[in-house]
Amino acid sequence: MKIFHIILRIGLGLMLLAFGFNKFFWFLQDFNFTGFPEAEYLFDALRYSGDDPNAGKGYIMHLVGLTEIVVGLLLVLKKWVPFALVMLVPISINIVLFHAFVNLPNIGPAILVALVNAYLIYRNWDSYRPLFS
Fold first, then answer.
1. pTM over 0.85
2. 11 is in which domain, residue-wise?
3. d(CA 101, CA 109)
4. What are the beta bridge partners of residue 114?
5. DSSP state for residue 29 in the 8-state scheme
6. N or C: which end of the chain has fewer CB within 10 A?
7. Which of helix, strand or coil describes residue 106?
8. Assigned domain for 133 exists
């Protein structure tokens, strides 16, 4: 079972590294937003400074990407894992909510990240116990 947890931690870390670096270099294909204009508009507003790609780069995607890279590195290197998992909670919740409300067909990876994050938090619960005492 310990190997399974290591695979989950490193797998989540590598996924976050890939998606985090993608927010800077855009090497992965974007989700298909055909039929979901709200999703495309919101995604473009976060990626650029508006819906016009010529308007300039926005800062939100870079901030989220940097956070994903830091969390991914911490998970892969097994440093401050409980802290990294807590940092990931707001990002994973927002990714799930984005897909749940404006782009439901592409919700799979978002749910995977949220579930693995929740499971790893559960596995590290002793680290969080002082927060609730």
1. yes
2. 2-128
3. 15
4. none
5. P
6. C
7. helix
8. no
